[in-house]
Write a structure and sequence with these properties.
By secondary structure, this protein is α/β, with parallel strands linked by helices. The chain is built from seven helices and nine strands. β3 (about 70-75), α4 and β4 (about 110-115) form a beta-alpha-beta unit.
Length: about 220
């Protein structure tokens, strides 16, 4: 059975029951996978390219990969944390090196690799959505060119979606809600990074649409 292997951070990862309704978009993506394929989700909360390699997460995914598999790689949220030497990476140096390393190893296994830039944080200032990802999305695009793989931009489209929904309505996508709505969060939450089911569905559909629009549509998606 062929696989779609997901590598990434908490925005993509499978969630434990105690943090629900938090949902990774990778969980919602399974509906877009063809019969005869399965999703192997190696995304882990808090991980960057650096510690995905150092902690053996990437090695486990690489061991799983088979010829013909599709590998979607989305890191960046935690590579940006330069104050944490275990995770932070310079966007124009180590981040690119790590991404090219991952892509090269997966291609050696005969898998197709596609990079995905980070989804936007819902971060408003004075009524305006602000950019929180700096150079990392552009650096990922540069890494994709160097590695010879496709790169799908999710940063700008998710920013546009947030702006279109508006400052208040866009909360529905994220873990930003009032008290009393969810049992796990009796006091509510104000997390503008992680997704609720509505947000996971939104991003998963976006990933599917953009994969489908590639000139060489990947096998494995409907």
């Amino acid at each position: 059975m062929h696989q779609i292997i997901l590598l990434g951070d908490s925005t993509c990862a499978v969630k434990d029951d105690e943090v629900r309704p938090e949902t990774g978009w990778g969980e919602a993506f399974v509906q877009y996978v063809r019969d005869g394929w399965k999703v192997e989700n190696f995304a882990v909360n808090g991980r960057s390219t650096k510690d995905a390699i150092s902690l053996g997460i990437f090695a486990r995914a690489l061991e799983t990969a088979q010829p013909g598999d599709l590998v979607l790689i989305q890191y960046g949220h935690n590579d940006e944390k330069l104050d944490d030497p275990a995770r932070g990476t310079d966007p124009w140096h180590q981040y690119i090196v790590n991404l090219c390393y991952m892509a090269g190893k997966m291609k050696e296994k005969g898998a197709r690799v596609i990079f995905l830039t980070s989804i936007a944080r819902r971060r408003f200032s004075g009524g305006e959505l602000t950019d929180s990802h700096g150079d990392w999305p552009a650096a990922m695009k540069a890494a994709a060119a160097e590695a010879g793989v496709d790169c799908i931009d999710l940063t700008i489209p998710t920013m546009l979606g947030i702006v279109k929904a508006g400052e208040e309505e866009s909360k529905k996508y994220y873990m930003h809600f009032d008290a009393g709505l969810y049992e796990n969060y009796p006091n509510g939450d104000e997390d503008d990074t992680h997704l609720r089911p509505e947000g996971a569905e939104w991003v998963a559909k976006m990933v599917y649409d953009k994969l489908s629009a590639l000139p060489d549509k990947p096998e494995g998606i409907k």
